């Protein structure tokens, strides 16, 4: 009997090791498209309400999923292509403007005692040149890797198609097979859903709105390359304790320093009253009391996610840390409950 039990245990361990090995090997096989796969899953989650609406009006699952993807392409991907094209043009224009920049007005305002030791004109031009060259290099790298990007887009939409159709059933199967008690499984599912909702809608959508409103302000008050700086503001808006002020504030001060008082004061007031306060209005309306994510998790998640996953890490990083915090909290609660028994 004991030998049979041991054989059973060995078979069980062999099975577990085999499953883990094949999962790791599978991840190795698809690691080049891992970002595209995750993007497809996230897009399916975001646009699932659209798919549900399509299902109410269109009988076929395939037709509803296809039309949902088509709407994503028409609403986001085509404008994104033209925006990227405009960003390339603005990057080149910004580089030319920096080369011809006259900082003599600012340099005159530096005290005479510091003028010899602080080469303001050289320092600023050198810093801006490095930034612009970095952006231009990034644009060049993107164009070189365009065939691979197109393949990644195909994989992303392919995953999105099947996740729209089968994602809900798959999520339910995963939930049912989590080795926890039913009320804990339900708790994990609810927390997971609220954290994903809060991260995607509360952080990303708010940042996009802030970046767009900031770009409009830069355009109104005559700041060059407003689309480019609007994109930078969108990224900064996702990072707690940083925000779009790192763009519009220096731009406003620069306008004031070169004698453009109207534009400088106007941009300063626009930034304080509109750009920096809009997130306090939008975020509560979007997420309400759902799944508030701690700012420390967001900050660490964004920074770590950017390093590991690139731009998409802005979403994936905070998600991973927030979900890890949910499981850690669950583990503590369960052991506390066992301790008090």
Walk me through this protein's architecture.
- With 341 residues, the chain is an all-alpha fold.
- The protein contains 14 helices and no strands.
- It has helices spanning 2-30, 34-46, 48-57, 61-99, 104-108, 112-115, 120-144, 146-176, 182-220, 226-237, 245-257, 261-287, 295-309, 313-339.
- α9 runs antiparallel to α10, α9 packs antiparallel against α12 (261-287) and α13 crosses α14.
- The protein is globular.
- The model is unreliable at 1-5 (pLDDT under 50).
Topology:
Layout: H1 2-30, H2 34-46, H3 48-57, H4 61-99, H5 104-108, H6 112-115, H7 120-144, H8 146-176, H9 182-220, H10 226-237, H11 245-257, H12 261-287, H13 295-309, H14 313-339
Brief overview:
The chain is mainly α. 85% of the residues lie in helices and 0% in strands.
